[in-house]
Amino acid sequence: MTGPARPRVLVLRALGLGDLLTAVPALRALRRALPDHELVLAAPARLAGVCAATGAVDRLLPAAAPGRAVPDSLPWRGPPPRLAVDLHGNGPPSHLLLQRLRPERLLAYARPGSPALVGPVWHEDEHERARWCRLLTWYGLPADPSDLALLRPRAASPAPGAVVVHPGADAPARRWPAEQFAAVADRLRRTGHRVVITAGAGEAELARRVAHRAGLAAGDVLGGTADVPFTRLAALVAHARCVIVGDTGLAHLASAFGTPSVVLFGPVSPRLWGPPHRPCHRVLWHGDRHGAARPGDAHGLRPDERLLRITVDEVLHAARDAMRAPRPVSAPDGTTRVRVHRGRAG
Fold this sequence. Notes:
Layout lengths: L7 E5 L4 H6 L1 H10 L4 E6 L4 H7 L4 E4 L20 E4 L5 H8 L5 E3 L20 H11 L24 E4 L11 H13 L4 E5 L4 H10 L7 E3 L6 H9 L3 E5 L2 H9 L3 E4 L5 H4 L7 E4 L20 H4 L3 H13 L1 E5 L5 E5 L6
Helix pairs in contact: 2-5, 6-7, 6-12
């Protein structure tokens, strides 16, 4: 005889890899606060491996929409959720999508013109990890933005100890020029580092061009025709020497594993999407640190002018510093400790 069904929590975060990784602290807070509930995450099916690595999600409910839009519907079955949590956005579409499921309670940011929805005030210029932790804390569920480590992958890395260079990004505005990435990869290769180039689906030509200019072999390119499977990508990043990347999902994966990283920002300030403040994470940005948080168009069709101001020498210097710094390492249970890597950082 089966017992009564567990009460269910439905969390909406139907976005990309980086978006899901910035929501990990909030998911962990929900898991701690509601250990007897089934936590269901509405997210793209391709992120199933990431969900498992959070150690907080019981089940993924496939949900996706073009760009950053809200799905038209959710394939929810059975009684309404005990609790629904909107970690997707602050507009009517995401709120209404969850409200149509008739949850007993909805946690979301307040929406002007909807007095029935009581919640905290949305702050436009707020770091994404802090945003969702503040939402839950307002409702009495304490959340820590630094609780972002993923469970350590059990798979072997395809290139242990390599420097991972990821030249791609969803939009050209956040894509540093290929020849610049190639120059960095070439210099690192010449100083004795193993370098691999990673690419998402549709980025094969970009990755091959960077690898060719850097004097790397075809086997040093991972992905491109399709995304690198998450299990393989996680093992690669977790055991990498350093990750050099633009403002995209792979930067957040490096943060989740405490892997040294150099992250290049352009149209959006790192104070909104940057890595945690640790010595092993270096941020390069030539915007006004006390001015607009979004001085450019993150979805623009050409590289942002602030991104173009970053030089090859700056990236190499930042990489050397990151590789020499103490490195926080996530344990199998997702907790972290600090390890000092004493290998060569030249």
